[in-house]
Amino acid sequence: MNAKVLSKLTDRQLLQRELKDYIMIAVGMLLYAIGWTVFLLPNDITSNGVPGIASIVYFATGIPVQYVYFPINAFLLLLALKILGFKFSIKTIFAVFTLTFLLSVVQKLTAGLHLLADQPFMACVLGAAFCGTGIGTAFSFNGSTGGTDIIAAIVHKYRDVSLGRIIMFCDIIIIGSSYFVLHDWEKVVYGYVMMFISSFVLDQIVNSNRQSVQFFIISKHYEEIGHHINKDMHRGVTIIDGMGMYTNSGVKILFVLAKKRESNYIFRLIQDIDPDAFVSQSAVIGVYGKGFDHIKIKQHKAEEKEDESNKELPKA
Predict the structure, then answer these.
(1) Which are the contacts of 283, defined by CB distance < 8 A and separation ≥ 6?
(2) Which of the listed CATH numbers 3.30.565.10, 3.40.50.300, 3.30.70.120, 3.40.50.2300 matches domain 212-283?
């Protein structure tokens, strides 16, 4: 297959992936809107992040949440454009506009609906599950709901801290401040339960897509496959000399480490170049180095220092 045909295939695949990203971000925002407006707001449960701030304003003044949610995110998006780049920010802008629109739609469709009015804890759990799934879906497809998600993404870019943990620290203050409006510690506790559940669900969804895998690829077109993995994915490729026992002839084996979410792209690339290639994929516990995780070894200092001079033993 010549380079021009492969380039066309790659362009088509990239377009399909971008379209899939936007569709899945919209799905994530729909889940978040349902969790927030159907389960949390009717039961006076404060959500996390900027939606939590909007919820507090709503409880205090009755102003619809979308009118507070959008302006705050507009400011944070300016930071995202500068620090995280256009690709992340454009999808986040799409997510913010989509969620703002869906909030008004879902609120109108569910006006007067009060599910689980006598079971606030169950409403808290379901609302948190919907919100966590929505945020996790958006993050997995290079988007965000804005707000503290943007702050988390900025910190995560420079520090190896989980997204859920960063968001949790930001939300502790936001949810705690809801007491000054609701004057009910029980509602505050429900807010914290919501925060922990949504953070857990977020980490489970995002981390499942960040797992690493390794590939062993045997193909006559190993140079072309390796070249495109290097160029298109910016992943390192190691060529290993091998010997086929059955054919008694030399073979070239490509060894590749990549993120789990990149597996489909690698398989499509191999299929486009050499459908008859032999491929082995396996999960790995951890990958450390450039493009993956950093090696972190905590060095413990001795709590007690040795004496500068040894004590002499008593003479007999």
Answers:
(1) 211, 212, 213, 260
(2) 3.30.70.120
Q: Half-sphere exposure of 179 toward its Cβ, with a 13 Å CA cutoff?
A: 11
pLDDT for 7 beyond 60: no
Token pair for residue 140? 């997995």
Tell me which residue has tokens 């109108």. Answer: 108
Which pLDDT belongs to residue 208? 67
Where do the CATH 3.30.70.120 domains begin and end in the chain?
Answer: 212-283
Tell me the pTM: 0.61
For residues 20, 84, 237, 217, the Cα torsion angle rounded to the nearest 10 degrees is -20
Phi, psi at 254, each rounded to 5°: -95, 130
Q: For 143-184, how does the pLDDT look when each residue is reduced to its tens digit (9 = 90+)?
A: 777 777 677 777 777 776 666 677 777 778 888 887 887 777
For the chain, give the longest Cα–Cα distance: 95
pLDDT at res. 217:
92
Partner residues linked to 283 by β-bridges: 213
List the 212-218 sheet strands across, edge first. 237-244, 249-259, 212-218, 278-283
Average pLDDT on 279-308 reads 59
